[in-house]
Amino acid sequence: HQKHRRAHRRDNITRDLDLFSFATRPGYGIHTAIAFLNHWAAFAKSNPRILIVRYEDLLKEPVIGLKRITDHFGGDFTAEELQDAVDFGKFENLKRLEKERYFADTHLQASDNADPQSFKVRSGQSGGYKQQFTHAQLKEIDEATRQGLDPSLGY
Q: I want to staple 65 with a disulfide (CB 3.0 to 4.6 A). Which of 2, 58, 109, 133 is the partner?
């Protein structure tokens, strides 16, 4: 019941909106992302079991980032095991595996192999959203982020 209500509601909200209008609409888009990230930042400050990991940092130094994560949770992995995991998670490999339908969970599969936008693994880059907006629109998004996002997150 809830699944159908949410899907119907989402369709009604987004049907007549361009991407920028949706991204900046109060209660959706960037505002929801900021609230979500701020919630986790606040929770992490009072709970040492929470580890905040930035995607950009994982892209820049994946082995170091993965070691930081595994150490946080008490893992004991060799440098070779960490490198194997990083190699498995590389963009090119995940793109290939998704196309081959390697993952059993249908949520991790492209809905249409002929449509590049239906893949979960699309670019392997940080900041890909910037290609979707004009310079003026990006300034507005950046300003909302600057004003609203907890600085401890490092953005």
A: 58
Local confidence band at 1 (pLDDT 50, 70, 90 cut-offs): very low
pLDDT of residue 117: 73
Half-sphere exposure in the Cβ direction for 153 (13 Å, CA): 20
What angle, 0 to 180 degrees and rounded to 10, lies between the N-to-C axes of helices 62-72 and 79-88? 110
Angle, CA 126 vertex, CA 125 and CA 130 arms, to 5°:
105
CA distance 36 to 29: 11
Residue 4 pLDDT > 70: no
Question: CA 44 to CA 19: how far, in whole Å?
Answer: 31
Q: What's the 3-state SS for the chain?
A: CHHHHHHHHHHHHHCCCCHHHHHHCCCCHHHHHHHHHHHHHHHHHCCCCCCCCCHHHHHHCHHHHHHHHHHHCCCCCCHHHHHHHHHHCCHHHHHHHHHCCCCCCHHHCCCCCCCHHHCCCCCCCCCHHHHHCCHHHHHHHHHHHHHHCCHHHCC
Q: Sorting pLDDT into bands at 50, 70 and 90, what band is 9?
A: low
